[in-house]
């Protein structure tokens, strides 16, 4: 059973960089041919896909967030990380990591506020 767990600060100041880590257990992030993704849900809104990193380390981002997004991985720790720069209060959301689309983390609340 694959399990994912998000971790990171719950409060980020405007203009700073949001950084979240997803720790995966029960399966390797390098196993062919899985995709590991980040999604968010702002309060009162639907799910928004942010981007993914695949089993080879290739990345693809939502066009609307591409200029501010970076997804990387640490294969030694079986983790992948989201960085979202220049955040504003509109980036406040519950952030989820997932293995497309079968397994999800429980989500972590991130609030952008001074």
Largest sheet composition = 7 strands, mixed
Number of helices, where a helix is a run of at least 4 consecutive DSSP H or I residues: 0
Describe the global form: globular
Q: Please tell me the overall pLDDT.
A: 97
The structural class is mainly beta
Order of helices and strands: EEEEEEEEEEE
Task: Quote the beta fraction.
Answer: over 45%
Helix content: under 10%
Number of strands: 11
The separation of the N and C termini measures: 39 Å
Provide structural commentary.
The chain contains no helices and eleven strands. With 114 residues, it is mostly beta strands. The strands form two sheets. Strands 2, 4, 5, 6, 9, 10 and 11 form a seven-stranded mixed sheet that branches. A four-stranded antiparallel sheet has the order 1-3-8-7, with no helix packed on it.
Structure at a glance:
The protein is mainly beta and 114 residues long. 0% of the residues lie in helices and 51% in strands.
Features of the shown structure:
114 residues, mainly beta, 7-stranded mixed sheet, 4-stranded antiparallel sheet, 51% strand, globular
What is the topology?
Blueprint: E1 3-7, E2 11-12, E3 18-25, E4 35-41, E5 48-54, E6 59-61, E7 69-74, E8 79-84, E9 93-99, E10 103-104, E11 108-112
Parallel strand pairs: 2-11
Antiparallel strand pairs: 1-3, 3-8, 4-5, 4-9, 5-6, 7-8, 9-10, 9-11
């Amino acid at each position: 059973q694959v399990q994912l767990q998000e971790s990171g600060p719950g409060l980020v100041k405007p203009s700073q960089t949001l950084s979240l880590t997803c720790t995966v257990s029960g399966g390797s992030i390098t196993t062919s041919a899985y995709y590991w993704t980040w999604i968010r849900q702002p309060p009162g809104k639907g799910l928004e896909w942010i981007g993914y990193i695949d089993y080879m380390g290739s990345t693809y981002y939502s066009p609307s967030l591409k200029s501010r997004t970076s997804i990387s991985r640490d294969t030694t720790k079986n983790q992948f990380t989201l960085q979202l720069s220049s955040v504003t209060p509109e980036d406040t959301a519950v952030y989820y990591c997932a293995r497309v689309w079968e397994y999800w983390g429980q989500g972590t609340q991130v609030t952008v506020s001074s």
